[in-house]
Amino acid sequence: MKVNGRHYRTIWLKESDALVVQIIDQRKLPYDFVIEDLTSVDKMAAAIKDMHLRGAGLIGAAAGYGMYLATLEARKTNAFDEHVLRASQKLVSTRPTAVNLAWAIDRQLKAIRNGASNDEKVAIARLTAGDIANEDVEYCKSIGRNGLAILREVQAGKGGPVNILTHCNAGWLAFVDYGSATAPIYAAHDEGINVHVWVSETRPRNQGARLTAWELHQHGVPYTVIADNAAGHIMQHAMVDLVITGTDRTTRTGDVCNKVGTYLKALSAKENGIPFFVALPSTSFDWELRDGLKQIPIEQRDENEVKYIEGWRDNTVTDVLLTPRESSAANYGFDVTPARLVTGLITERGICEANEQSILNLFPERQKSGKQPVRSEH
Predict the structure, then answer these.
(1) In angstroms, rounded to a whole number, what is the distance separating the alpha carbons of residues 57 and 153?
(2) pTM of the prediction?
(3) What is the pLDDT of residues 210-245, one digit of tens each?
(4) Helices marked H in the chain — which ranges?
(5) Cα(first)–Cα(last) distance of the chain, in Å?
(6) DSSP 104-151
(7) Could you tell me the pLDDT band of residue 342, with boundaries at 50, 70 and 90?
(8) Is 248 marked active-site?
(9) Among 217, 296, 267, which residue's Cα sits nearest to residue 4?
(10) Residue among 136, 248, 291, 335 flagged as catalytic
């Protein structure tokens, strides 16, 4: 994607120094565009945990590059493998919900073991980190092509603008490029389809209002920011043609875990007969889980994210207290949308229904995965 006309990914090796990983610090957006240098596992872990970067695909890519930084550090020690293992444990503990994190770390550990020397292990880790990032880009491009067919069909059926509701940020900022939920939108806009996006603000961190709105503006896609609680109203009044969200973890049976508030939008879409699609690369499937509501860990974050809101005033970013100082607050980061509420899953291999058989038709190599023979109904 382009920022002020220049192409960026969300994570990359510094051009002049391959020992440095660079990211876009998303905490500063949309008010300031800041590139941050990460030179250690500790800095990468902090960047993931404290959401300098966020989003399923980008977390996976960051974990891949974090493991590369781990090998650079390990090369300076007398216990290379032990240091890499400790680093992997530190990284995997940063965000419990997104499955891409553990997937990328496991891939790196397996790859690094193939190195015959420490220098070779470093080279393998660097190559694997690049592969993870490049594959993420290609998967998102394919999601865009596959989802484009849905938007073409909607436009053909109505003639006017295609109104899409999305939640949180499953855009290029959440991946290495293109995004998942936004990829079909960008593909449609670039093809000349008249699209308009309803951007749900996404309290408490406001990733929709701050990040999705910013990147849609950068790409020239028409959009309107709404309060989270307005989504049901505009669906009732036929102002939404379809919903597309992303996901941080999806079970093999089609249950979808995404930013908290997604479940409510799925309920409203079902009530109003509006298609509800989820866009995801295959790396966001957890092939071992069958019951998302019971098995997916839900991250609980600092209560101050609920009690305070951050914004731009007098040329500076400032926090404003929303609640009485004495209030306690619960801050659940994600919720689970049961498969029965999901119209379809848009993946790099194609579109499928949100049920095990349809998913496995796209991914037949996963037939033997899954720990539990029966999933509960919910």
Answers:
(1) 28
(2) 0.92
(3) 999 999 999 999 999 999 999 999 999 999 999 999
(4) 41-49, 56-74, 80-92, 99-112, 118-158, 183-191, 207, 213-219, 231-236, 262-271, 292-295, 304-307, 356-362
(5) 39
(6) HHHHHHHHHTT-SSHHHHHHHHHHHHHHHHHHHHHHHHHHHHHHHHHH
(7) very high
(8) yes
(9) 217
(10) 248
